Amino acid sequence: MRWDEIRRVELPPGVPGQLYLMAMPGRQRPLQTDIERALELGVTGIVSLAPPDEVADKSPEYAEAIAAGLLPFPVETCPIDNGGVPQDPEEFRRFLERTAQRLQ
């Protein structure tokens, strides 16, 4: 499986939601292509660990769409530098809890 494909994560039994992994939207393909594929899969939100400057550098159209509120689903972020660790472990824990709650 290629790293730039959208991949479904197998969640534990009893978890009703679905979780997918993918490259940053708009980085490998046109942004609209990624959005359309996400909508086909039933994606209702994006969680991102990429810092804003990395998003702007690697996918400027995606960064602009986030800033302008033009995406068809919310984007929740908890920026972590590439190869780094969360600067605030408590904030990261809350981010993970919110993400897990959305899968229920």
Features:
single chain, 104 residues, alpha+beta, two-stranded antiparallel sheet, 38% helix
Any chance you could write out the topology, listing elements then pairs?
Blueprint: E1 7-9, E2 19-21, H1 31-40, E3 46-48, H2 52-58, H3 60-68, E4 75-77, H4 89-102
Parallel strand pairs: 3-4
Antiparallel strand pairs: 1-2
Helix pairs in contact: 2-3
Describe this structure in words.
The two termini are 27 Å apart. The chain has four helices and four strands; from the N terminus they run ββαβααβα. The radius of gyration is 14 Å and the shape is globular. The mean pLDDT is 93. It has helices spanning 31-40, 52-58, 60-68, 89-102; strands at 7-9, 19-21, 46-48, 75-77. Strands 1-2 form a two-stranded antiparallel sheet. With 104 residues, the protein is of the alpha+beta class.
Offer a concise description of the structure.
It contains four helices and four strands. With 104 residues, it is an alpha+beta fold.
Report the C-alpha radius of gyration, rounded. 14 Å
What class, by secondary structure content?
Answer: alpha+beta
SSE run: EEHEHHEH
Shape estimate: globular
Strand content: 5-15%
Give the helix proportion (percent range).
Answer: 25-40%
**Largest sheet properties:** 2 strands, antiparallel
